[in-house]
Amino acid sequence: MAKSMISVSVPGNFSKTTARLNKLKQLRVLDILNRYGDRGVAALMTATPVDSGETAASWYYEVNSQNGKYILAFKNRHIVDGAPIAILLQYGHGTGTGGYVVGRDYINPAIKPIFDQILADVRREVSSL
After folding, report:
1. pLDDT tens, 96-105?
2. Phi, psi for residue 128 in degrees, rounded to 5
3. Enclosing H/E stretch for 28
């Protein structure tokens, strides 16, 4: 049995596709994430339960890009005896006397509107290309 070959010919070129891909490479995602990093820190500072105020004042953010992935990470520097105080406030913790302090979900409600706005801005940026 003879093998048959199929051939396809398409007129034109990929100039529009190439132009769009080049625009996608120029996305300002890092700019958007840095802008919202400051807003997220402000929201977390405001929402953090206050005793001394040290945990609230210890929020910061980092923005990274690697292998086409963008990361906006909110972090807190307030550590006591190796324990991250912001996390203990969020999820609760045992005490040295056998008691338990119930956590309070303050991080998620504070940061959700920031993430929603980031998503909207990135979508708008991509769709405008």
Report:
1. 899 999 999 9
2. -80, -5
3. none
Residues 6 or more apart from 33 whose CB is under 8 A from it? Answer: 63, 70, 72, 118
Instruction: Give the residue among 75, 79, 106 at the shortest CA–CA distance from 92.
Output: 106
First to last CA, the chain: 51
For the chain, the structural domain boundaries read: 27-127
pTM of the model: 0.74
Q: At what angle do helices 29-47 and 107-127 cross, to 10 degrees?
A: 160
- Tell me how far apart the alpha carbons of residues 28 and 38 are, in angstroms, rounded to a whole number: 16
**C-alpha to C-alpha distances, 124 to 39, 57, 111, 129, nearest whole angstrom:** 19, 32, 20, 9
